[in-house]
Amino acid sequence: MGSAALGVRDHCGWAVLVAVGGAPEAPRVLLRERVTLLDDPSLPDQPYHAAAGLDLAAAGELIARVERAAHAAARDALDTAARELAGAGHDVLGVALDLGAVGAGRMALPDDLATVLSKHHYLHGAEGELYHEALMDAARGAGFAVSRYDFKELRDIAARMLGTDAAGRVDGLRSQVGTPWTRDHKDAALAALLVLDGADRA
Q1: pTM here?
Q2: 20 to 30 Å CA-CA from 91: which of 43, 65, 145, 149?
Q3: For residue 189, what is the enclosing H or E element?
Q4: Euclidean distance between CA atoms 192 and 48, whole angstroms
């Protein structure tokens, strides 16, 4: 059975998943998917923005509904990817996720919902963290090790850990899979490659 790692580049309501395997010097794309992180079309993918005009009780309930739906969708997405990889003979060693603005320390969210809803930059930070947390909980619930990277610094991190040509190697994976091979795909693949390299060194 070959080893694999999953990288995830998430946005509000959706994410790109890329699994890579093989040696870090010659990676192979094993899976590439765009998945939903919010299956219920009646719910807003930016719940904090939608809740900003509501009273606190209604706002809290709306956000909680989106959180529950996002956690369920994240579990489904990662479970499906893991089954597909396992069925193809790959053992998933871990999942790589973005730290996000909150996790990277660029923003500290207030503890109380009223303050979060009062500032536009808090709305964005809270929404990003909602989906990050859903994915992290889903990955851990599936038994995967979770590695979180600051995706804004991902190429610099990869250059230090994998060599200065790491980003170029990932950019070149388009020849394996064709289009689309966007920055989201490249970031997810590069983060997965860091996980794969770390597991190989362990």
Answers
A1: 0.93
A2: 149
A3: helix 183-201
A4: 30
- The dihedrals phi and psi of 19, each to the nearest 5 degrees, come to -110, 135
Domain enclosing residue 23, as ranges: 2-201
Sign of the C-alpha dihedral, residues 122, 136, 145, 18?
negative
Token pair listed for 70: 């996002």
| Residue 24: predicted pLDDT | 81
Question: For 172-178, what is the mean pLDDT?
Answer: 94
DSSP one-letter code for 152: G
Q: Residue 1: its pLDDT value, please?
A: 67
What DSSP character marks residue 54? S
CATH number at residue 12: 3.30.420.10
Place of tokens 């394996």: 176
Rounded CA separation 107/123 (Å):
11
pLDDT (tens digit per residue) in 1-11: 689 999 999 99
- Rounded distance between C-alpha atoms, residue 183 and residue 187, angstroms: 6
What are the backbone dihedrals phi and psi of residue 22, each rounded to the nearest 5 degrees, phi first? 85, -170
DSSP helix/strand/coil, 18: strand
DSSP label at residue 171: H
Q: How many domains does the chain have?
A: 1
> What is the spatial distance between Cα 73 and Cα 151, in angstroms, rounded to a whole number?
22
Q: What is the pLDDT of residues 71-115, one digit of tens each?
A: 999 999 999 999 999 999 999 999 999 988 777 777 789 999 999
Position 148 confidence tier, pLDDT thresholds 50, 70, 90: very high
